[in-house]
């Protein structure tokens, strides 16, 4: 089953993820490039207004996986679901570990010399790196796999509600150890709580429950929940910035992420024909592959942001990343290993893992 509005929502969400990573009006590798107050707040707003994307992906996963998990043998279903995600995580971790972030430098100074700093960065934080893999954005894949496996275990013992309770507990602990660590505990935990099941389990379990219990909101009520959640999220970020000097970009999730993502998801469910036949819907099947590959293009484009310091470039570079990612996807789709690189499957044909950045049913 595919829902046009959810398909379009997934494509909007992957564009939002690209926006986060390309960082308009900011440069993570050189904070001095954009350091005026107005730049900091514009960059922070653009970074945070797109934070609905990952919670939305987790909700989709739980929602579309529910029928198979509830039909029987939930652990087998979960393992079958996670297998292509594991393949993608391993393959892309390996690729990001060997592809130079500075191809020109690798050509000029030699591959090993160019890669030394890159490998040093990769090994700098072993406590958290094994949750992530070869590139920072790949944390999503193990986080999703762990959430699905925990949900399946709870379903195996006929206590799916336990996953929701455990997810809520982990979520609050993650906030205490992360974004709210400084105001509540005085410091953040050494373990980065964005990784693993800390945030993912709650949203995957909520998606599962929405479908299992046929929870629905009217379009108007869902829209109100969306707006309240989004404004609440932005207010949380602003207060944390003003009162405790916590940078906007520090926040992957906040308390208001829950109503924001739920409001968006329920609004799209209440308007299933939204975007039917549109370009967004047609591109949605590529989302999983785009998620894996886009960071390579982000890294290659970062040096241009230092050379072309102009508001015009900062505004269009998310679209440049999108266009280049679609082009690279098209090139990879022609390779014999396209199934492995883009869907985590050995066959060149077939659908992506349903629910993992995809809006179909689990296989």
Protein topology:
Blueprint lengths: L3 H19 L14 H12 L4 H19 L2 H25 L4 H7 L1 H12 L3 H7 L7 H17 L3 H18 L3 H5 L11 H16 L6 H26 L12 H14 L8 H5 L3 H21 L3 H22 L5 H6 L20
How would you describe this structure in keywords?
363 residues; disordered C terminus; 0% strand; mainly alpha
Question: What can you tell me about this protein's structure?
Answer:
The chain has 363 residues and is mainly alpha-helical. It has one domain (4-343). Helix content is 69%, strand content 0%. The radius of gyration is 20 Å and the shape is globular. The model is unreliable at 359-363 (pLDDT under 50).
Question: Could you tell me the strand content as a percent range?
Answer: under 5%
Q: What is the distance, rounded to the nearest whole angstrom, between the alpha carbons of the first and last residues? A: 11 Å
Structural domains: how many: 1
Main sheet properties: none
Outline of the structure:
The chain is an all-alpha fold. The protein is built from 17 helices and no strands. Helix 1 runs parallel beside helix 15 (287-307).
